[in-house]
């Protein structure tokens, strides 16, 4: 006897379902098979478009909300590309943290101006999701970007692991620390109130790290050397 069936995945509803198939013949013999269906909600939070000038240093952009709806990220990979490699060089993205965050880094090319589209792709062995944002690179001799001004002071540098962050403007922000490979090693939301923030990084290995502090839509990234 032929078997027929229909599988329907409802948009907007995610999870795991088991479908039982039963086949029988005229003699009453029955065979059952169970099929597991996974409906996942792949996500990447949208990043705001960025304006930078072509004399700025390395920029760090936290890419957040990366996931497949299951709460796990170990089966996901993340990659980044751009349609204007002449505008943003050294484009790279680190590994996805268990919290679904990866740090994207790039440096604006000093000799070019224009707008580049940066696309981040998160994927597993079956599906993928993409998110794009624009990076507009301008010449500081013709326009001044507020984000060109340092957002914080970092000292001492080099450091034995005890460092101080002094925010220059603003009362609330966030900092993310990543290693030279782009892997996040520490992040925190902080109420600043213009008071210095003391960080203990003595548990980290010696090497070069990047601290990205963000205030509203502005991001400033500075390098620190740990040498104990």
Indicate the topology.
Layout: E1 15-24, E2 30-39, E3 50-53, E4 59-63, E5 77-82, E6 88-93, E7 102-108, E8 114-123, E9 128-138, E10 152-155, E11 162-167, E12 172-179, E13 184-191, E14 197-200, E15 207-215, E16 218-226
Parallel strand pairs: 3-9
Antiparallel strand pairs: 1-2, 4-7, 5-8, 6-7, 8-9, 10-11, 11-14, 12-13, 12-15, 15-16
Short recap of the structure:
The protein is built from no helices and 16 strands. With about 230 residues, it is an all-beta fold.
Description:
- This protein has 228 residues and is mainly β.
- The chain folds into two domains: 50-146, Immunoglobulin-like (Sandwich), CATH 2.60.40; 149-226, Immunoglobulin-like.
- The protein contains no helices and 16 strands.
- The strands form five sheets. The chain has a four-stranded mixed β-sheet, with no helix packed on it. It has a four-stranded antiparallel β-sheet with strand order 13-12-15-16, with no helix packed on it. Strands 4-7-6 form a three-stranded antiparallel β-sheet, with no helix packed on it.
- Mean pLDDT is 80; it is low at 1-13 and 142-147.
């Amino acid at each position: 006897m032929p078997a027929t069936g229909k599988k329907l995945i409802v948009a907007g509803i995610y999870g795991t379902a088991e479908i039982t198939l039963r086949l029988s013949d005229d003699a009453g013999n029955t065979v059952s098979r169970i099929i597991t269906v996974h409906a996942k909600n792949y996500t990447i939070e949208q990043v705001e478009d960025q304006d930078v000038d072509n004399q700025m240093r390395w920029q760090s952009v936290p890419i957040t909300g990366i996931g497949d709806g299951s709460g796990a990220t170990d089966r996901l990979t993340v990659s980044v590309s751009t349609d204007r490699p002449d505008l943003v060089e050294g484009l790279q993205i680190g590994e996805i943290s268990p919290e679904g965050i990866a740090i994207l880094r790039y440096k604006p090319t000093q000799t070019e101006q224009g707008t580049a589209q940066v696309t981040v792709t998160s994927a597993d062995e079956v599906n993928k999701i993409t998110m794009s944002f624009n990076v507009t690179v301008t010449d500081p001799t013709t326009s001044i970007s507020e984000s060109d001004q340092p957002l914080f002071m970092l000292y001492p540098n080099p450091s034995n692991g005890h460092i101080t962050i002094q925010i220059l403007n603003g009362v609330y922000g966030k900092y993310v620390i990543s290693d030279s490979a782009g892997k996040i090693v520490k992040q925190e939301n902080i109420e600043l109130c213009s008071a210095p923030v003391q960080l203990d990084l003595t548990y980290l290995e010696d090497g070069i790290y990047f601290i990205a502090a963000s205030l509203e839509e502005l991001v400033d990234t500075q390098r620190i050397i740990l040498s104990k």
